[in-house]
Amino acid sequence: MTTKLQAIDIRKSYGSQEVLKGVSLTAQAGDVISI
Questions:
Q1: Contacts of 33 (CB under 8 A, 6+ apart)
Q2: pLDDT tier at 27 (50, 70, 90 boundaries)?
Q3: Average pLDDT over the chain, rounded to whole?
Q4: What pTM was estimated for this model as a whole?
Q5: Burial class for 27, CB neighbours closer than 10 Å (0-12, 13-18, 19+)
Q6: What pLDDT, on the 0 to 100 scale, is given for residue 15?
Q7: What does each C-alpha distance from 18 to 3, 4, 5, 21 come to in angstroms?
Q8: How many CA atoms lie within 13 A of 22 on its CB side?
Q9: SS3 labels along 2-33
Q10: Nearest residue to 6 via CA among 29, 30, 24
Q11: pLDDT above 90 (res 28)
């Protein structure tokens, strides 16, 4: 399959609270992804 979406090293903070630390994902056509 061909990769349709790729996200590398996702980070998210709320103020000083880091809630995502280096999350990576690859999605193919038809995949359902939730963070």
A1: 5, 25, 27
A2: very high
A3: 92
A4: 0.59
A5: middle
A6: 97
A7: 28, 27, 24, 7
A8: 0
A9: CEEEEEEEEEEEECCEEEEEEEEEEEECCCCC
A10: 24
A11: yes
Q: Report the distance separating Cα 16 and Cα 23, nearest Å.
A: 18
Q: What is the pLDDT of residue 2?
A: 83
Check if the beta carbon of residue 10 is closer than 8 Å to that of residue 24: yes
31 is written with which tokens?
Answer: 């995949």
Closest CA to 2 of 33, 26, 32: 26
Question: Which residue in this structure is represented by tokens 């630390």?
Answer: 21
